[in-house]
């Protein structure tokens, strides 16, 4: 078993810029393993509505303004979900929501 199995496969997840000179191309979320990225993004979509820890995090990002796109918020929640997953794997613990 790898030390950090999930983050190693998703470490390049995030927006990719395709800019050149004054040209500003459309940003896209990519990198990592495609299937795992899609699963994590789907889990993040569900977590933004139902998870007692990640729901306030997503609401805070939405409320922060700057017109954050929905994709940006979902990607941030997915990255946080990966961090939580890695910590649980490292400590060999199961999930227990602790609202502070």
Can you give keywords for this protein?
100 residues, mainly alpha, 2 strands
- Count of DSSP helices? 4
Radius of gyration: 15 Å
Oligomer: single chain
Tell me the strand order in the biggest sheet. 1-2
Number of strands: 2
Helicity range: 55-70%
Could you explain how this protein is built, in words?
With 100 residues, the chain is mainly alpha-helical. The protein is built from four helices and two strands; from the N terminus they run αββααα. Strands 1-2 form a two-stranded antiparallel sheet. Helix 2 packs across helix 3, helix 2 packs across helix 4 and helix 3 runs antiparallel to helix 4. The chain is globular.
Would you kindly provide a brief summary of this structure?
With 100 residues, the chain is mainly alpha-helical.
Per-chain topology:
Elements: H1 5-10, E1 14-16, E2 28-30, H2 34-50, H3 54-63, H4 70-91
Helix pairs in contact: 2-3, 2-4, 3-4
């Amino acid at each position: 078993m790898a030390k950090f199995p999930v983050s190693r496969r998703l470490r390049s997840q995030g927006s990719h810029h395709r800019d050149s000179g004054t040209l500003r191309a459309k940003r896209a979320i990519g990198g990592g393993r495609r299937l795992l990225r899609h699963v994590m993004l789907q889990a993040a979509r569900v977590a933004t509505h139902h998870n007692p820890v990640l729901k306030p995090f997503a609401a805070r990002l939405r409320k922060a303004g700057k017109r954050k796109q929905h994709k940006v918020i979902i990607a941030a929640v997915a990255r946080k979900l990966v961090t939580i997953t890695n910590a649980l794997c490292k400590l060999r613990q199961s999930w227990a929501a602790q609202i502070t």
